[in-house]
Design goal:
Elements (H helix, E strand, L loop, with lengths): L1 E4 L4 H10 L5 E6 L3 H16 L3 E2 L8 E6 L4 H12 L2 H6 L4 E6 L5 H10 L5 E4 L6 H9 L5 E2 L7 E4 L10 E5 L1 E2 L10 H4 L4 E2 L2 H13 L4 E5 L16 H8 L7 E5 L8 H9 L6 E3 L7 H6 L6 H14 L4 E8 L6 H14 L3 E6 L17 H24 L6 E8 L5 E6 L4 E5 L8 E10 L2 E6 L2
Helix pairs in contact: 1-6, 9-10, 10-12, 13-14
The protein binds 5'-deoxyadenosine and iron/sulfur cluster.
5'-deoxyadenosine binds next to strand 15.
Length: 460
């Protein structure tokens, strides 16, 4: 896999400096998954690199960019709605540049729709083309009416794109792009393209930089981190990569997502068990608890194999916790299939569940399957799933009370004068203390549980 290096675009910087009397401001909003948030940080880094400032409100902006998500139809509709609402900004400020990027414009029908029905959108480019942004903005500022890139694959990984990170102590670190799994419901492989792993040395260099800059929590990102390493010249799987990263000295911990159960190995679990730097929390999306549907979803594991992995992890990693994604209402889901999902979540006892009602995505195999379950039935199943999960989460949360443990202070809690601390197992404890703790680690003692929320105190 070829990789290329991002270079500062002097021509774009000059063009922007000449076009505006003072540095223009950009408003960037990212929708969807952590990969997209990480991409959004790179978009901001590139904009700063060519002379833009950043702002938090679209009213102030000279450039508005929506970095979009295509996983569910509802998210796409929201983006179209929000783009529609920008028309008034353009009328008030004709020089305003409006752009759409990320996963949505990787679908030809989206670009067609923007071209035909949203004439005030100036800029469209798909995911993996962030490094082209300076050139696209230059074309626009030099007089081209609209710069709309057609969807396309990127045959190389682009390294060293500057990132403007949202936090000074939690960082996203993408280790790969794309996805080759083609789960039958999922649009991601079509919009993010084939899977490409970054080279271990490039990841190590970025990781070391983050640790040296004082980042305490580094989350390794990929659609399926467990298949990291395919196509690399040297042999290095995900466990090898984490072992390599853990050689960097410092005070930090590693999280990672997403782990596909079909590629989760005992070696990976042994590595999590052996390395103190790696959190004892695994996000292991199961999607559903029916072998019949797992097959139709093209997931390549059975409930039994999945539970075997959970058992192995529980034996090897003390206090390990799990979270998962669940799809309710996949085409043809029967009450019996759904009961399988309820059984499974009760067996595993997830700390957190991310739950989604199936959304039909044009171009995916599942979109062709008959789907006779009504929306009302699906919503009712979802309500039952959430009620079952609430019971589990409340029980697990209550079990944390009285266990002194390390946590990272993230930001203000819900109540005034409190700060939220995130435990290694991903639960949050609200603690009365000052904001000077933000970004620092401390030993904390959970003393009470309110639903899935813990309260506690510092236990230094
Ligand atoms: N409908 C509903 N949920 C979906 N996901 C992916 N595609 C769809 C879809 N078409 C969910 C899966 C995945 C998470 C990121 O989004 O649960 O793990
Ligand atoms: Fe979608 Fe499956 Fe790839 Fe995840 S692993 S991004 S659910 S195709």
């Amino acid at each position: 896999m070829a990789s290329m290096i991002y270079h500062h675009d002097e021509r774009a910087a000059r063009c922007i400096a000449e076009h505006y009397e003072q540095p223009p401001l950009a408003y960037v909003h990212s929708y969807g998954c952590q990969q997209n948030v990480a991409d959004g940080e790179k978009i901001k880094g590139v904009l700063l690199d060519i002379g833009y400032g950043l702002c938090d409100s679209p009213e102030l902006a000279d450039l508005i960019l929506f970095n979009t998500c295509a996983v569910r139809e509802h998210a796409e509709q929201r983006v179209f709605g929000n783009v529609g609402a920008l028309k008034k900004y353009k009328q008030a400020k004709p020089g305003l540049i409006i752009g759409l990027c990320g996963c949505m414009p990787q679908q030809p029908q989206v670009v067609d729709k923007i071209r035909a029905s949203y004439p005030y959108v100036d800029l469209v480019f798909g995911v993996n083309r962030i490094d082209l942004l300076p050139q696209l903005l230059t074309e626009k500022l030099e007089g081209k009416k609209r710069v709309l890139l057609e969807p396309g694959e990127r045959p190389e990984v682009v390294e060293q794109i500057p990132a403007k990170r949202d936090s000074s102590y939690r960082a996203w670190l993408p280790i790969m792009n794309g996805c080759d799994n083609f789960c039958s419901y999922c649009i991601v492989p079509y919009v993010r393209g084939r899977e490409h792993s970054r080279k271990p040395q490039d990841i190590l260099q970025e990781f070391r930089g983050l640790v040296e800059a004082g980042y305490k929590e580094i989350t390794l990102l990929g659609q399926n981190v467990n298949s990291y390493g395919k196509g690399l010249e040297e042999e290095c799987d995900f466990a090898d990569l984490m072992n390599l990263l853990c050689t960097v000295p410092g005070e930090y911990h590693i999280r990672f997502m997403t782990s596909h159960p079909k590629d989760a190995t005992h070696k990976l679990i042994d590595t999590i068990a052996a390395q103190d730097h790696i959190c004892n929390h695994i996000h292991l999306p199961v999607q559903c608890g029916s072998d019949r549907l797992l097959k139709k979803m093209n997931r390549h594991y059975t409930v039994e194999k999945y539970l075997g992995l959970i058992d192995y992890a529980r034996k090897k990693i003390p206090d390990v916790t799990f979270s998962s994604d669940i799809i309710v209402g996949f085409p043809g889901e029967t009450e019996e299939d759904f009961q399988g999902t309820l059984d499974l979540i009760r067996k595993v006892e997830y700390m957190q569940l991310f739950t989604f009602i199936y959304s039909k995505r044009a171009g995916t195999p599942a979109a062709l399957l008959p789907d006779e379950t009504t929306h009302e039935e699906k919503t009712e199943r979802m309500a039952r799933l959430l009620a079952a999960q609430e019971e589990i989460a409340f029980k697990l949360t209550a079990q944390q009370v009285g266990k002194r443990q390390i946590a990272l202070a993230e930001g203000p809690g819900r109540n005034p004068g409190t700060v939220n601390f995130r435990l290694r197992n991903n639960l949050v404890v609200e603690i009365p203390c000052g904001m000077e703790w933000a970004g620092r680690e401390a030993m904390v003692l959970p003393t009470g549980a309110r639903g899935a929320m813990l309260t506690g105190e510092l236990a230094l």
